[in-house]
Structures are given as structure tokens and as C-alpha cells.
């Protein structure tokens, strides 16, 4: 079979070669309407720097650091940025979120009878578990991206209801802040208890005075942490529900492009068959 035969077949089937990809693209575009739209909302966050008395506290870290670490107290201070991002991505936060809002029926609506308020599967082993809910949340709903250049963190939620997606994103940020806030207050209390004990037993007046200064600064840090709602993350841009036609999935242009590609493949196959059919035997 020669190129001349293909060109001749193309001339004979020019209309079909053009119409077939266009029709397939239209069909792919139409099929995209069979899928329920999903919306993606984003909350842009700025991780906050942990408050720490770096002056005298840093100078005493070497002297009491070993003993403090045994007591579970960090005298080094530092940033809670990495920890905050880890909390936002954590399984424990997802578990708390799903449990407190009873989201398993929402995450697995095909298995839930909304009228009777119970699971459809009769076998308990077929009922969705909390672990399955967390996996679905992490694989298909929640995503946390960190921009190393700007330091900004983006929490995105993809869901079929735009308003619900925005509510979930903002609630997860709030829960991460509350969790980090409670942890900071607890650590400050442990630090205060540890340093107060050391100060009471310390013979050196100067060291004892320094320890009490640190205790005082820890009280201030604890009071500040108790009232800061944006303890771990400051919300630069909260999640907002997009317009109904501003959905992330399905990508209708992708469906149309895929349909056009399939149409081109079919048109090419049709031309090959046509060209081979018209080639004389033995040519």
C-alpha cells in the first residue's frame, strides 16, 4: 500500500475524516455532563513563628537541656511552622474532623440510607470504616501544598458542594490552630513547672534570677497563646465557595480533546482500510 493510495482514500473520505473527530469531540463533551461537578476551594495560610524567649533561655539550654529533654521540655524554642503543616496534613486531625462532624455518611453516600438513617450493607464488614474515610479524605478531598519560595501554605478541598467545601477548609484550619494552641499552652506549663523546680533548688542567685525571668516570659507566652486564634496559621485568603459554573471537575475541555483524539484514530483506521481495499491484488 503506497502513499498515493492513502492520499486517494483521504480525498474520497475527506468529509468523514473531518466530521468523525468533530462528532467524537462533541460526544466526549456531552458525556462530561453525566458526571456530577466537583468544586475546589483553597485557603491560603501563612505559618506563624512560635514565640520563644531566645535570650537567656538560649544561654541556659546547654546547661539544662539534657535534663529538660528527659522531662519533655524543649528549652531551645524555635519555629512551629513545620509542626503546623504536619498537623494540617495529619491523620489525627482528619480523624477528629470526621468523627466530630459525622462525615462517614457524607463521604460514602452510596452506602448510606438517608431516610432510614443507617448503612445499607447488611454485612458489618462492608460498612465504611473510619480508616477508609480518612483515606478518601486524603486521596480525593484534602490537599496541603507548601510554597518553599514564599513560605505560604495552601489547603485545598475538592467536593461536590462548593459551600460545604469552603466550610470544611476553614474548619480544618481552625482545628489545626486550636490543636497547636493547646499544645503550646501545655508545653509552656510544663516548662514553667520544670524551671520553677530548678530555680527553687538552684544555689546560684544569678542563675535563679535568670530562671525566674524565663518563667515570667513563659507565663506571658502562655497568656498570648491562649488568646491568639491564628496561633499556627494566619489566614491570608480564606476559603470561599466558587460560582456554580466554576467547577474543577469534570474538565469538559479534556473530555472534548479525548473525544477528538479517538475520532482522529478512527478516521485514520478508516482511511487505512479504504486504501487497502482499493489496492489491486498483488500490487
Describe the structure.
This protein is an alpha+beta fold. It folds into 2 domains: 1-35 and 250-283, no CATH class; 37-249. The protein has 10 helices and 6 strands. It has helices at residues 3-12, 14-31, 54-70, 81-89, 91-101, 104-107, 130-141, 162-201, 205-227, 252-278; strands at 39-47, 112-113, 118-119, 142-146, 153-159, 233-237. A 4-stranded antiparallel β-sheet has the order 4-5-1-6. α1 crosses α10 and α4 packs across α8 (162-201). The protein is elongated, with a radius of gyration of 31 Å. The N and C termini lie close together (8 Å). The model is unreliable at 52-60 and 65-73 (pLDDT under 50).
| H and E string | HHEHHHHEEHEEHHEH
How can the largest sheet be summarized? 4 strands, antiparallel
Mean pLDDT: 80
What is the tally of beta strands?
A: 6
Strand order of the largest sheet: 4-5-1-6
Radius of gyration: 31 Å
Uncertain regions: pLDDT < 50 for 5+ in a row? 52-60, 65-73
Q: Tell me the helix content.
A: 55-70%
Beta-strand percentage?
A: 5-15%
Helix count equals 10
Distance between the termini: 8 Å
The best one-word shape is elongated
Structural class: alpha+beta
User: What quaternary form is this?
Assistant: single chain
Number of domains: 2
Amino acid at each position: 500500500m503506497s502513499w498515493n493510495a492513502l492520499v486517494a482514500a483521504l480525498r474520497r473520505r475527506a468529509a468523514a475524516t473531518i466530521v468523525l473527530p468533530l462528532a467524537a469531540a462533541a460526544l466526549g463533551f456531552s458525556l462530561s455532563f453525566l458526571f456530577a461537578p466537583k468544586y475546589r476551594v483553597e485557603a491560603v495560610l501563612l505559618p506563624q513563628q512560635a514565640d520563644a524567649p531566645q535570650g537567656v533561655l538560649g544561654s541556659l539550654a546547654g546547661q539544662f537541656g539534657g535534663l529538660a529533654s528527659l522531662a519533655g521540655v524543649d528549652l531551645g524554642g524555635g519555629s512551629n511552622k513545620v509542626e503546623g503543616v504536619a498537623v494540617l496534613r495529619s491523620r489525627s486531625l482528619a480523624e477528629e474532623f470526621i468523627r466530630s462532624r459525622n462525615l462517614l455518611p457524607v463521604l460514602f453516600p452510596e452506602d448510606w440510607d438517608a431516610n432510614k438513617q443507617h448503612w445499607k450493607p447488611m454485612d458489618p464488614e462492608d460498612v465504611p470504616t473510619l480508616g477508609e474515610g480518612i483515606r478518601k479524605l486524603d486521596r480525593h478531598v484534602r490537599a496541603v501544598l507548601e510554597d518553599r519560595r514564599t513560605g505560604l501554605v495552601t489547603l485545598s478541598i475538592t467536593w461536590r458542594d462548593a459551600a460545604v467545601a469552603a466550610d470544611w477548609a476553614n474548619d480544618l484550619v481552625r482545628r489545626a490552630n486550636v490543636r497547636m494552641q493547646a499544645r503550646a499552652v501545655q508545653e509552656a506549663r510544663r516548662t514553667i513547672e520544670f524551671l520553677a523546680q530548678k530555680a527553687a533548688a538552684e544555689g546560684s542567685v544569678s542563675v535563679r534570677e535568670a530562671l525566674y525571668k524565663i518563667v515570667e516570659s513563659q507565663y506571658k507566652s502562655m497568656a498570648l497563646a491562649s488568646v491568639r486564634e491564628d496561633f499556627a496559621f494566619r489566614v491570608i485568603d480564606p476559603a470561599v465557595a466558587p460560582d456554580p459554573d466554576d467547577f474543577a471537575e469534570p474538565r469538559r475541555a479534556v473530555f472534548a480533546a479525548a473525544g477528538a483524539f479517538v475520532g482522529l484514530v478512527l478516521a485514520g483506521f478508516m482511511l487505512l482500510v479504504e486504501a487497502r481495499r482499493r489496492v489491486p491484488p498483488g500490487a
